[in-house]
User: Fold this.
Amino acid sequence: ALKMFTNSGAGAGTETRHGSSSSQNAFIGMAMGQASQLFDQQSRAGKVDPGADKQSVVNSAAKMALKMYLKGGSGGAGPGGLMGMAARFM
Assistant:
C-alpha cells in the first residue's frame, strides 16, 4: 500500500477544509483495501488460520498505516515524510 500510495502522488499533503490531511485518509484506506484483498486471496488458498477474523486484520492494517503516517512526520514529500519512508522499502 505504501508503494502504491507514493506512486499515485496522493502523498502530496493536500489539506481538506477540516484541517485533516486527505492523503492520510487515502493512505489508510489503501492499506485497508490491500489487507482485505490479501486476506481473501490467502483465505482462498487455505493459508489463513481458522481463528483469523477479516475485520481484525483490516483494523490492524489501518492502525499500522496510521502509525506509519504519523511517524513520517511531515506526511508529504519531505525526507521525514512518507516519500522518505517509501524510499527505504524500494
